[in-house]
Amino acid sequence: MNERFLITTLCALALLSTVGASLPYPMLAPLFADGSIHGLNSFLGLPPKLLLGIALMINPLGLLIGSAVLGPLSDGFGRRRALLLTTVGAALGHLLTAAAMVMESYLLFLAARFFTGLLEGNGAVMRALVIERVKGPLRNHALSWLNGAFNLGWLVGPLLGGFTMAYGAEVPFGIAAVALLLGTLGVFLTIPATPPATHGLRWWSVARERHALTLLRHGPLRTLFIIHLGYCCGVASLYEYFPLWLVDVGGYDARQISLVNMGMCALMTTAALFAGHASLVEGRLRAGWYAAVGATAILCVGFGNLWIGIAGIVLFGVPHAFYNTALQTWSADTFAEYGQGSVMALLSTIFCLANILMALLGAVLTLIDTRLVMVVGGVLAACASVALRRWSASARTMPAVSPVE
Q1: Distance in angstroms (rounded) separating the CA atoms of residues 34 and 29
Q2: Contact by Cβ (8 Å): 347, 327
């Protein structure tokens, strides 16, 4: 099929998929921390901020599992089939979430968000499609544009949540479900089917034996895992807890939180449009410098006042967009022999694991001071920046070695 048509379809699906994952973020902090009492924030008499931390963790937990297995599964059973099944399932998950909001059932809310996250881990499948089917210099641009579409979803989703919550907390989830079904129709009509490459194996055998974490048997990929995890923990600290920081420091409501998020994601999306440019600087080195700027922005939230923190939140979008494209393209070129679906799944899995770790850690730290989450996240991102630049420097001073062990 036409490369640009494929890119357009995947970018649209990426946008629609991310909308559903991101729309609860401006809703949850006021829902759990505004002082009102209801079924969602009074479960078992636990502190509302602790319940918020668990609610933030459960969707990334599903994403972690889905990201680890969906990419490798699509390597064997086909990208189109994987995208169709996961988008329909995620739409069903959004409808279950809407039901949980109406019923004020905390347990159903957690189950629905987990199920939805499990099936929204299909970003690795989309990235693998781009890497395999788009050739030449256009590939890097396409990967950057796809990242931009994911970033745009983090703008549209919170806006949708913040501005439609007044009509009922369940309404945004119903809209997200309809949008995903439209995305499913787009995949069905535009992406051609391919014969499965895996014969004689059942899907659960492939999921068990070829999930993304099996790549950690290889030394360079273990190094990538550790360093990228540190940076992603910094990102997760900002993504997950800046709404609560805005509630604590500025008394912001869902609409005001959505506007701040809009500024960050607008810059991130715009930056992603240009992040795929060719560069003579090695990918890890570029990613290391972008991570340093991102860490500085996160620390501004941890140490600054309301306005300095908001500036850090908004400006963070620029270095993060460039970091993502630099690291993904370098990883795709360096580790292609392991399967692009598996490599992209590993990067997605790392991000999901970071979200879980920071949700758990943040649930404890926010009981002391929400700013501590940002400080810890900024320090971790700064350490990742240093490690990436050292890794790049060591590679330039050593002879090339095959990654096969």
Answers
A1: 8
A2: yes
What is the phi-psi region of residue 200: left when phi exceeds 0, alpha when psi lies from -120 to 50, beta otherwise?
left
Distance linking the first and last C-alpha atoms of the chain: 37
Is residue 132 within 8 Å of residue 263, measured between CB atoms? no
Separation between Cα atoms, residue 351 and residue 12, nearest integer Å: 22
Closest CA to 175 of 27, 6, 9: 27
Q: Which residue has the tokens 């809009």?
A: 262
Contact between residue 233 and residue 380 where contact means Cβ atoms under 8 Å apart? yes
pLDDT per residue as tens digits for the range 256-284: 887 887 788 788 878 877 776 767 778 78
**Rounded Cα–Cα distance for residues 397 and 405 (Å):** 21
pLDDT in tens, 74-104: 766 677 788 888 888 888 998 998 888 888 8
- Between CA 338 and CA 340 the distance in angstroms is 7
- Tell me how many degrees the CA angle 388-273-90 measures, rounded to the nearest 5: 85
Contacts 24+ apart (CB under 8 A), 251-258: 253/30, 253/34, 254/26, 254/27, 254/29, 254/30, 254/161, 254/162, 254/165, 255/26, 255/162, 255/163, 257/25, 257/26, 257/29, 257/30, 257/158, 257/162, 258/26, 258/158, 258/159, 258/161, 258/162, 258/163
Q: What would the pLDDT profile of 230-250 be if each residue is shown by its tens digit?
A: 999 999 999 888 888 888 888
Residues found in the chain: 405
